[in-house]
Amino acid sequence: MSGTLDKSASNEGNGYSEKIEGQGQQIEQTPIAPRSSFLAIAKRHFKRFWWAHLIFFCASVLIIALCLVYVAMPKIAQRGVNRSSTTFTDLNFLDPTANTIVLSQDAILHSPSMYTPTLDPFSAALYLVTNGTYAATPMLSIMMPKIHALHPKSIVHTPPQTLNISDMDQLTDYCIQVLTQENVTTALVGKTKLHEGKLPVITVKYNSSTTYKSLNGLAGFNVTDLKLNLSAPAGQPNLVGKAFIPNPSVMTIAMGNVTLNLSTDQAGIVGNSTIHEMTLVPGNNTFSMTSIIDAGKVTSSMNKSGIVTLKIIGTSSVYNGQHLPYYEKALASNVLTLDLNVAAVLANSQ
């Protein structure tokens, strides 16, 4: 062959041109640029479209923030309210009428949440809870104060307020349970606004049930210092003494003038007793008591040991001249018994 081959570059993969001479012809190959790496392509893309990526980033952050504020935070706030609990330290039912009652209360709010929100004042319906079941209707509506929930606990003071009785039957059932059971459960239910720092105001549901000690059937009731006046005119008190009533609860209950019927199995009704201005306070209570009894029926009911077993049932609760039906029905539901030593009473009456 008479031609010569002149290579000025090695191959197209390295981007070199190749020149071939032979048989009077000259062939040139166009050089091929090296392929760019992914990183280089990405750099050029971001350099060209940086504004689009910035907009996308800001929009994503905004969407996440809005979801956190308007979706996650309300759920977190509601969960915190749901997990809170209340312990009553003072519960007062004062100045009752047939249709109203004055209530005040102090409580400890337990909050496991690390947040310290503030709840606006709100109206809460008070329900009786029996064996975990809420009553069909509330008995009272209470105006709850502004609450600043601290971790792990804070004090909530509800000042005295006159409340209309929403459901007489429910309040009566509550009074019966308070008088006859060891514990009672009630629940406060309502809606309010929750504030947490600079976050938007959140509407939360408040539903908190609390179990607390009640009067336990007046267990420990006793009568002391009894003195019989056999010369008292008919229809006038002829027996006086002291009524001892323990109150294991935190409740103060004003019941007015309370009248109790006295009876025996042998003779039926043998008289009645009255405690004037009876207000039960936490701890031990001692009241002056006056009674009108039929001495003949009492002595006829004695056993061989001179003991008379009296049954005591409340019949009347009058405050400022008004009968209180919810207390009267509660008193009638609780039967007390008392073994009365007639000989000791007569000896103390000398």
TrEMBL record:
Coiled coil: none annotated. GO terms for cellular component: fungal-type vacuole membrane. The chain crosses the membrane at residues 49-73. It comes from the Eukaryota. InterPro entries: DUF3712, Tag1. Residues 1-14 have a biased composition (Polar residues). The keyword Cell wall biogenesis/degradation does not apply. Keywords: Membrane, Transmembrane, Transmembrane helix. The keyword Secreted does not apply. Residues 1-28 are annotated as: Disordered. PANTHER family: CHROMOSOME 16, WHOLE GENOME SHOTGUN SEQUENCE, LIPID-BINDING SERUM GLYCOPROTEIN C-TERMINAL DOMAIN-CONTAINING PROTEIN. This is Uncharacterized protein. It comes from Amorphotheca resinae ATCC 22711.
